[in-house]
Amino acid sequence: AAAPTSEQQSTLSKFYIVRQGDTPESVSVQFYDTPDHAADILQANYGDDTVDGSDGDDLYRVTGNAASGSLGHDVYRDSGSGGTDRIAAIGSGDVDIGNGGLSATMQVATKGFPMQVLANGCDGGWMVLAQPSINSFKDLVGKKIAVQNGSIGLVSLNWKLKQEGVYGKVEMAFMDNQDQPIPLMRGDVAAICCFEPYAALAEQNGWGKRLWVPYDSPMGKTNLGFVASEKFVKADPELTKKMVQAHVKATQKMASDSSIAIETTIKQFKMTKEVAELSTRNLFFSAESGAPFVSGLKSLARMMMEDKMLEKEPDWGSFLNLGYV
Predict the structure, then answer these.
(1) Are the CB atoms for 122 and 99 separated by under 8 Å?
(2) CB atoms within 10 A of CB 167
(3) What is the pTM of this model?
């Protein structure tokens, strides 16, 4: 454990830093929060940063997050449960606009950081796969299913388990998406609720079969949005309009030409062409932001509240700013 610098000590008096590896690219920093529920300032470093917020509902403003290439502030929200939690980030400060997870955007917006949804970003993108011996959700009773904590995958999975009457009877193994296929292959878990392209990786290699195509819940395929800080939108509505127009054109191009997504998946995630092609078939590129999109988003909010992942619904009047589409 390396001692914090004087600058870090002044910023991180509440935190203990653990570093692994000896190069900037491999450094991993863990911040352990004190049990109070106050918002704290974190100084992020290279590598993957995780926050243990203890119990409660904490908001974190992380500055200098070199791993994401941001020079300003990223806002991180802890899931509020015990243990080390995955954090969902929505850019603010120097990072004011872009694609973001709608569940994380709502969590941030309802905790005092005004955000706006400007357009639909992309639909779908996750799947539930199981070992060959699993033929129904009832076969999962007493077994483990891997899912990313705090994700929309978890929201939809909880709904499905309740529908099947097995909620609370299946053990959740919380892990990030890239970590799920190998445990499924080894038999460490009976099923995974996984995002692309890792769901396609497991399916293409025969490590799991489709148990549920998870788009029949009230939230449907709701996943990503084109979002921005409210401050950015108010400061430059003309630039916001141009950014939304560029997003719509790019999304339409992606929808009509799957080779772009396939090539990006191969390069970004180091996947084979076969995996990339299968993955892309489970991504639905759309900037359509009308009534079906709004309905899915509001359903997601209600489902998150039922799962205690969201304290309240956002102020829809200010949160939804879809006129630029």
Answers:
(1) yes
(2) 14
(3) 0.72
CB atoms within 10 A of CB 54: 18
Q: Distance between CA atoms of 73 and 75, rounded to whole angstroms? A: 6
Q: Are 102 and 297 in contact (CB under 8 A)?
A: yes
Q: Which long-range contacts (CB under 8 A, 24 or more apart) does 234-238 make?
A: none
The whole-angstrom separation of Cα 27 and Cα 49 is: 9
* Residues facing residue 99 across a β-bridge: 226
CA 176, chain centre distance (Å): 10
Residue 72 has which token pair? Answer: 């300003």
Radius of gyration of the chain (CA): 20
DSSP string, 159-185: HHHHHTT-TTSSEEEE--GGGSHHHHH
Beta bridge partners of 88: 77
The amino acid at residue 20 is: Q
What SS3 string covers 30-53?
EEECCCCCCCEEEECCCCCEEEEC
pLDDT 10s digits, 181-211: 999 999 999 999 999 999 999 999 999 999 9
Q: In 257-290, which ranges are continuous DSSP H helix?
A: 258-269, 273-280
